[in-house]
Amino acid sequence: MSVLTVNMKGKDEDEAWREIGSEDVTVTFDITAVDENTIRLDLYGVKFGKGPYDPATGICEFKIASK
Question: CA–CA separation, 6 vs 11, rounded Å?
Fold first, then answer.
């Protein structure tokens, strides 16, 4: 479970961003192992690029794939 927060900025460039709403959300995504150290993430039909995965830390950096 995560919290989705929506912020809005007014017409003036110097006006600060303000929160206009927040909601608890559940996100479902698919993880595909491409090879031993590369995984791919698909989120609601958006395919993120393949990312190098470090199993020791659990960290993987993703880039959004082009259409």
Answer: 17
